[in-house]
Amino acid sequence: MFKTPFSVRYWKLAAQELKILRVLAIAALFVGLRIVVSTFFIPLGDNLRIYFSFFVPALGSLIYGPFVGMLSGFASDILGYFVHPSGGFFPGYTVTAILSGLVYALFFYRARITVVRIFFCKFCINLFINVGLGSLWSAILYGKGFYYYMAKSIVKNTLLLPLEVLLLVLFFQMLLPVIGSRGLIPKQDTKRIPFV
Asked: Which CATH code fits 8-181?
C-alpha cells in the first residue's frame, strides 16, 4: 500500500498492470459495465440527476491503477458514443473520462480507503473535472459562456457531493472485502471503512 502516488515504485507497479491479462479482462468488463450503467439515472429536478456510472471507474481504478484506468476511460467514452450516440462526437468528454480514471486511481489504487480519502477524491472530480472541464465543454459546444455553465454546475455538483460520497462509501464497504479476498487489491486492515 502507498500513502501517496508520488513515488517511482507506485508508477512502476501501475505500469505493470498493463501486462496482466486478468487485469485487462477486468478492465474490458468494466468498460462494458460503465456503458450500460451510464444509461440509468434518478431525476431529482431540472438538470439534476443522480447517475451511478461513477461507481464503475472508481472501483476499476482502485483495482487496476492509473494507466489502465485512463485507457478504460478512453475506451468507455468512445464505445459509449457508438452504442448510445447523442449529438455529435466531442473529444472533450473523452478527456473528462480519461482524467476521471486517473483521479480515481491517484486516490484509491494501492491505498488505504478511508471516508476522508473518498470525500477528497469526489471533491476533486466534482470541482475540477465536472465543474471546471464540464463548464468549458458546455461553453464550447453551446456558446452561453463559461461562467454561466460554471454557476449551474457548481450548484449541482455541490448538492450531489455528499450523496455521492455516502453512496461510494457504502459501495466500497460492500465490495472491498470481496475484491480483497480475490487478490485484486491489498486487503484492507478493518472490516469497516475508517473515517481517516
From this structure: 1.10.1760.20
